[in-house]
Amino acid sequence: MKKNKIIRNSITTLILFLSIVGFSQEKSPTTVSLDVYYTKIQSEKKPQIIDARGPEEFALNHINGAVNFNLESKDYADQVAKLDKTKPVFTYSIGAGRSVWLAEALLKNGFKEAYSLEGGIANWIGNGKPFYANSKSKLTLAEYKKIIAENKDVLVDIGSIYCGACKKVKPVLETIKAQYGSNLKVVEIDLEDSPQVIADLKTVKVFPTLILYKDGKIVFKKEGLGDLKNDVDLALAAK
Fold first, then answer.
1. Catalytic residue, candidates 166, 189, 198, 201
2. Residue 238: predicted pLDDT
3. Which of 182, 223, 173 is nearest to 203 (CA)?
4. What is the DSSP code string of 74-88?
5. Are 224 and 164 within 8 A, CB to CB?
6. Burial 42-72 (b: 16+ CB within 10 A, else e)
7. Catalytic residue list contains 114
8. Which sign, positive or negative, has the C-alpha torsion 202, 195, 185, 210?
9. Contact, 213 vs 153, CB < 8 A?
10. What value does the mean pLDDT of the chain take?
11. Active-site pick, 121, 163, 212, 236
């Protein structure tokens, strides 16, 4: 009982901190690259993989073999008790927020190794690693390539409806659409609707990722919003 109380207090402290600063995207000592993360998982007979997103996100797509819980889960202590503290635990989320805090919480509670995936599920699926999806992608790679080939200028927005940074892109896209109209084709691809095309592109490391094509060639690829409007204006104005 005392142990569970300590765990709950630790969780409460972490959640309070998260509510103040939000989900951090800064590099943590627990965060490793996709290559390291994948290699370590492959070396385990029964890897302990934890999806630290919400249950609705997990139901739509996740890494094969993963289980779902995070610091705010009601059964957090029970889920942790099922894990082997002597073996590595692999966490991930939509980016590098919830998974980082979960990995650090596990280390503080006596786990030998805990790793969070840099770039989260975006990096995993975006580089073609095996995953589960509960439905077929609305957009295929062939359809994607056709759009690029049939339009002179194409701006592609790749993200997730659960990604906070991705939501900030939407109003900027609306401004760009209003300015350029039919002269610029804007394609919005969400992980929840078209995970397979994101996997097939093998070019996404984080959400959001913005790609501008001009005559079928990539003019720029941006990870994160940045000054998207200005970048698009400058690229389209250039001959």
1. 166
2. 87
3. 223
4. TTHHHHHHTS-TTS-
5. no
6. eeeeebbbbbbbbeebbebbbbeebebbbbe
7. no
8. negative
9. yes
10. 90
11. 163
Q: Are 40 and 118 in contact (CB under 8 A)?
A: no
User: Domains of the chain (ranges plus CATH)?
Assistant: 2-133 (3.40.250.10), 141-237 (3.40.30.10)
Report pTM. 0.86
163 catalytic? Reply is yes
Residue 24's pLDDT band, with cuts at 50, 70 and 90, is very low
- Report d(CA 163, CA 165) in Å as an integer: 6
Residues 200-219 pLDDT 10s: 999 999 999 999 999 999 99
Residues 6+ apart with CB under 8 A from 17: none
Polymer length of the chain? 239
**pLDDT level of residue 51 (50, 70, 90 thresholds):** very high
Whole-number Cα distances in Å, 152 to 26, 146, 216: 37, 12, 7
- 28 or 26: which leads in pLDDT: 28
Query: For residue 1, is pLDDT > 60?
Result: no
